[in-house]
């Protein structure tokens, strides 16, 4: 066996990062994302395809809640190459009902877009929300971010260090974050089958690994993953949480029982679940 990362050979690395293989039919969950999100747009006020940049992909959907509401920015997963903000609003009903405005972010997809560009777009979206929160009744001083899988990684890049001045936002622009089933150290991604479309090299791994760009004073985090995830997804979350705490910042880490890599997000807006309760406690509603 030729070890290429930690104690794993190529087969083990590929298996550890193959999220789709942990469920019988990922299409069931993707269809549910679309159905729930479409229902949210039909039943709630939704400002669709609001531009946060010059590229056609740089748009957000906004679900306003009450005046001066806290804001939750959700970043979708899909291994940086699939989905959009249109399938990413399943949590809108519960958030809006509890007085939290939801913003769902679209970004350009790999392999057409590099990870550097995708990270830049998400930061630009966050900056737009901070600058324009009042236009939809949001409170710019209570912005929270979250995402699942690739969206968990991108959430990590929004709470990382040394990027804020370039985008004209304060270092504490994010008051709390919820990265779910995230990827925080990208070296195993570079070594896996995922790199067929991500095209990461050593330099882009260095630039875009949240684990390598921890802030000195981080916001509170809620980090979780599904019970049936691979050991690598679980380890990544645990390592990230440990590193966050080692710097003296607050991080709640737990496994979401009875859920997998894809359906964990359905608990986000339900305060009757451990994840939903942790999220609403984080936001303070």
Protein model, in words:
This protein is of the alpha/beta class and 285 residues long. It has one domain (10-283): Alpha/Beta hydrolase fold, catalytic domain (Rossmann fold, 3-Layer(aba) Sandwich). It has helices at 10-16, 26-43, 92-97, 115-132, 150-158, 164-167, 187-190, 195-198, 202-208, 231-246, 274-283; strands spanning 47-51, 59-63, 69-75, 101-105, 138-148, 174-180, 221-226, 251-256. The protein has an eight-stranded mixed beta sheet, sandwiched between helices. Helix 10 (231-246) links the parallel strand 7 (221-226) and strand 8. The longest helix is centred in the first third of the chain and has 18 residues, at 26-43. The protein is globular, with a radius of gyration of 17 Å. The relative contact order is 0.15.
The top-level CATH class is Alpha Beta
Return the structural class: alpha/beta
As for the number of domains, it is 1
> What is the CATH homology-level superfamily?
Alpha/Beta hydrolase fold, catalytic domain
Low-confidence stretches are none
Compute the number of strand runs: 8
Round the Cα radius of gyration to an integer and report it: 17 Å
**Fraction of residues in helix:** 25-40%
CATH fold-level name: Rossmann fold
Secondary-structure map:
Elements (H helix, E strand, L loop, with lengths): L9 H7 L9 H18 L3 E5 L7 E5 L5 E7 L16 H6 L3 E5 L9 H18 L5 E11 L1 H9 L5 H4 L6 E7 L6 H4 L4 H4 L3 H7 L12 E6 L4 H16 L4 E6 L17 H10 L2
Parallel strand pairs: 3-4, 3-5, 5-6, 6-7, 7-8
Antiparallel strand pairs: 1-2, 2-4
């Amino acid at each position: 066996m030729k070890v290429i990362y930690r104690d794993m050979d190529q087969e083990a690395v590929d298996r550890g990062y193959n999220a789709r293989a942990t469920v019988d039919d990922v299409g069931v969950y993707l269809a549910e994302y679309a159905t729930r999100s479409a229902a949210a747009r039909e039943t709630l006020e939704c400002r669709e395809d609001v531009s946060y940049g010059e590229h056609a992909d740089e748009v957000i959907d906004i679900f306003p809640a009450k005046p001066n509401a806290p804001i939750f920015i959700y970043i979708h997963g899909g291994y940086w190459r699939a989905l959009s903000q249109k399938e990413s609003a399943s949590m809108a009903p519960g958030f809006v009902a509890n007085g939290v405005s939801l913003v769902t972010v679209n970004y350009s997809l790999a392999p057409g877009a590099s990870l550097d560009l995708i990270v830049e777009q998400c930061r630009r979206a966050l900056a737009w929300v901070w600058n324009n929160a009042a236009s939809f009744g949001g409170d710019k001083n209570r912005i929270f971010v979250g995402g699942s899988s690739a969206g968990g990684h991108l959430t990590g890049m929004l709470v990382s260090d040394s990027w804020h001045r370039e985008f004209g936002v304060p270092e504490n622009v994010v008051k709390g974050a919820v990265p779910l089933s995230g990827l925080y150290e990208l070296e195993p991604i570079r070594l896996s089958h995922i790199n067929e479309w991500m095209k990461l090299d050593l330099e882009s791994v260095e630039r875009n690994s949240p684990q390598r760009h921890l802030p000195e004073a981080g916001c509170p985090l809620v980090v979780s993953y599904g019970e049936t995830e691979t050991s690598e997804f679980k380890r990544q979350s645990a390592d990230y949480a440990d590193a966050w705490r080692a710097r003296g910042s607050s991080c709640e880490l737990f496994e979401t029982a009875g859920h997998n890599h894809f359906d964990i997000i359905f608990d986000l807006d339900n305060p009757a679940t451990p994840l939903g309760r942790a999220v609403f406690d984080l936001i303070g509603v």
